[in-house]
Specification:
Elements: H1 3-7, H2 19-29, H3 32-36, E1 41-46, E2 51-56, E3 62-67, H4 70-83, E4 94-98, E5 105-109, E6 117-121, H5 129-134, H6 140-151, E7 156-160, H7 166-180, E8 186-190, E9 204-207, E10 210-215, E11 221-226, H8 228-236, E12 242-245, H9 251-262, E13 269-273, H10 280-290, H11 297-303, E14 306-312, E15 319-330, E16 336-340
């Protein structure tokens, strides 16, 4: 990693200008550094036995020849926790932090929960849609259709199983949107720093699930969680042209989605876990039901225009678009009417 690259990274509690501190940090990373420095690395798993498994974009997972001792794992996790004002020990044995300089999402587990294991998820460079076509991860016909959908400001939901490349594909769609509409202003609402908006100059990121404080009577202060519904209100008043919603993973984020759609928001993108393209809207219904909200299929059918379904082949590492489905309305029986494009 060069000095210029370091200056462009988020520090996450680390003094990026301290050369000695950087040297110590890189030493502490040990064998992990070489894989973090490779731009197409997406996942690094370090087991309780110190084995290291690496995944790169478009490649199958492999076991690295190096090992990482328990002492090294303990030191690294303790350092990461300390950088961001957290603790990892036998009473707080699960850790969620960001990797300084790299920005990778890190999950760490100490005894008695997980035996000093690490899970590192790294979002590499945004892959252009044209490269998906070249690698035969999407057909040219479907890529052209999605470009037209961006021009038409259709609402797009990218679905798939865990680790199927949903967020990476949204970033690719955003890169395409920046090429088509470079003057537009996207508003990105998310709970984790995962979705970027490469190519756009005028953009706004809002982060939900952040603790905030509000002044009360008699000088009291109360705390609350800045949720997706709060972020929606701010987003709608921030001069955006289209809205990007972080992953729908629970009822609160789904309620925010429903409210956003009900405002007539266009050019909307989000991701969600589901078992098929057709099952995706039913999955949104389930999340709304968890919050006790009524299911209005007419509204969902009106505002969810396109579902892109991603698949992941664990044998060769391929993550590709397996289906693109359009939602055209509601049948007389009250079911969603969908058309599969491929």
């Amino acid at each position: 990693m060069t000095t210029g690259e370091i200056e462009n990274r988020v520090s996450y509690g680390f003094d990026a200008g301290d050369a000695l501190a950087q040297q110590r940090f890189f030493f502490m990373l040990g064998p992990l550094k070489q894989y973090l420095d490779q731009p197409r690395t997406t996942n690094i798993n370090v087991t309780q036995d110190g084995l290291i498994f690496v995944e790169r974009f478009g490649e199958s997972k492999f076991e690295a020849p190096e090992r990482m001792s328990e002492t090294a794992r303990r030191a690294l996790l303790s350092f990461l926790a300390n950088c961001q004002g957290k603790t990892i020990d036998h009473l707080q044995a699960s850790l969620s932090v960001r990797m300084p300089l790299y920005g990778s999402r890190v999950r760490g587990f100490a005894d008695p929960i997980g035996g000093w294991a690490l899970v590192i998820r790294q979002h590499g460079p945004t892959i252009p849609l044209s490269e998906y076509v070249e690698r035969q991860l999407i057909s040219q016909r479907l890529a052209d259709y999605l470009c037209d959908a961006i021009v038409s400001e259709k609402n797009i939901v990218v679905a798939g199983a865990m680790n199927s490349g949903k967020t990476a594909f949204v970033r690719s769609l955003l890169l395409e949107a920046a090429r088509i509409r470079p003057e537009a202003r996207p508003i990105i609402v998310q709970s984790d720093d995962e979705i970027r908006a490469d190519g756009f100059r005028d953009k706004l990121f809002l982060f939900a699930r952040v603790q905030q404080a509000t002044a009360g009577l008699n000088g009291t202060t109360s705390r609350y969680v800045y949720e997706f519904t709060h972020a929606l209100e701010d987003a709608l008043q921030s001069n955006g042209n289209f809205l990007i919603w972080g992953e729908l993973r629970d009822g609160k984020s789904a309620v925010g989605l429903a409210l956003a759609l009900n405002t007539g928001t266009r050019g909307f993108m989000t991701t969600i876990h589901s078992e098929s393209a057709e099952e995706t809207i039913h999955r949104i219904e389930d999340l709304l039901a968890f919050e006790g909200k009524p299911i209005v299929r007419r509204m969902l059918a009106k505002f969810v225009d396109v579902v892109v379904y991603m698949k992941h082949d664990t044998k060769d590492g391929r993550r590709w678009v397996s289906d693109v489905v359009t939602v055209t309305g509601i049948s007389r029986e009250g079911e969603y009417v969908m058309e599969r494009l491929g």
